[in-house]
Design goal:
Structural class: mainly beta
Number of helices: 2
Order of helices and strands: HEEEEEEEEEEEEEEEHEEEEEE
CATH class of the largest domain: Mainly Beta
Largest sheet: 5 strands, antiparallel, barrel
Number of domains: 2
Radius of gyration: 27 Å
Shape: globular
Oligomer: single chain
């Protein structure tokens, strides 16, 4: 009889142990498979990306370049490339029970050869005559005039504030001063072909941290926001001959900014470094778009397409940098500004 009771006890213990092993403590989570992506170009403003269903997935997160993520329950997404000739689409499979089925690794697909809208105008800077220096700025147009030094004392400086480069309806403005014939300073925009990604510091302030301009072009604009320069001289601005509707613009870090945050800022988590693009119509601000170029553990590399379509009709675009680090150099690179007349 005792042996029977002992056997029954051991059987119950085995069943209890098996039940415990079935509650998930012994079964590892199974990561969802990454979706396999395909795409179809429907038109200049419409691309369809699709994938096969992923087992145990309840939804899918997707994004275009670095724009905000969206979620869909279907196995396709229709995206707007914003007039860009190419874009990168990223998709994750997700589950309602992430403890059992964690999100998949990201799947990425590059959509290329997208036609641009026939009515769109692109400012790409390829027609700018840069000369041997590889850039244009306001110095050749500067004339001597009355000025003051940083203490308010009267001096004479070579200065220029006005149009630097015009393409279509777009007019990029710049400010230059030799500060009492002592050293060169500039705010606003220059047009450049510099792609030195190795040299740190202000002497390399006209290089983009990329191997080329946007979409492989040779030339682009570099903006510098002179936060301590009296307005309007310190603000990079693009003025339009008539009101237009901007669609998108290519934005990248300069080498000076990228290497500053990578090499000179000791903290692992970097302070946010944000480009703010303000649309103006006449004297009225009509909207703002913010784009993070560095922050946390991320420093943006290469060109990104920024959506400007929400600004509506504008007669100008103003560019400012927001950053809590008072020593950060306030530069950015710009290319392929796309707008509708």
């Amino acid at each position: 009889m005792k042996n029977w009771f002992l056997g029954a006890f051991l059987l119950c213990a085995a069943v209890a142990w098996t039940a415990c092993s079935d509650d998930g403590t012994e079964n590892p989570a199974v990561q969802l498979a990454a979706p396999e992506l395909e795409y179809e170009i429907i038109g200049p403003r419409e691309v369809r990306v699709c994938w096969r269903p992923v087992e145990h997935a309840d939804a899918y997160r997707y994004s275009v370049d670095r724009r905000a993520e969206n979620t869909t329950l279907s196995c396709e997404a229709t995206i707007d490339p914003l007039g860009a000739a190419s874009c990168v689409v990223t998709v994750y499979a997700v589950s309602d029970d992430p403890s059992a089925y964690p999100d998949s690794e990201p799947s990425r697909i590059t959509v290329s050869d997208i036609p641009r809208p026939e009515e769109a105008v692109i400012v790409g800077f390829e027609s700018a005559a840069l000369g041997e220096e590889g850039f244009i700025w306001g110095k050749p147009m500067a004339v001597e005039e009355d000025d003051t030094d940083w203490q308010g004392n009267p001096i004479r400086s070579n200065r220029y504030y006005g149009s630097l480069y015009r393409e279509g309806e777009a007019d990029l403005w710049t400010f230059y001063s030799d500060s009492g014939h002592t050293f060169d300073t500039w705010n606003g925009f220059v047009v450049s072909n510099h792609t030195d990604m190795e040299t740190s510091g202000y002497l390399n302030d006209k290089s983009v941290y990329a191997g080329s301009g946007a979409e492989g072009s040779k030339q682009f604009a570099v903006g510098y926001y002179g936060a301590w320069t009296a307005e309007p001289y310190g603000i990079p601005v693009i003025k339009f001959e008539t009101a237009v509707r901007p669609l998108s613009v290519g934005i990248a870090n300069t080498t000076y900014v990228y290497r500053y945050f990578r090499d000179d800022v000791a903290e692992v988590r970097k302070p946010d470094y944000t480009l703010r693009i303000t649309g103006v119509n006449g004297s009225e601000e009509v909207g703002e778009v913010s784009w993070l170029l560095a922050g946390g553990e991320t420093i943006v590399e290469g060109w990104q397409t920024v959506d400007l379509s929400g600004l509506g009709e504008v007669t100008g675009l103003e560019f400012r940098i927001a950053c809590e680090d008072v020593n950060a150099p306030l530069y950015f690179a710009l290319d392929n500004l796309l707008y509708l007349k």
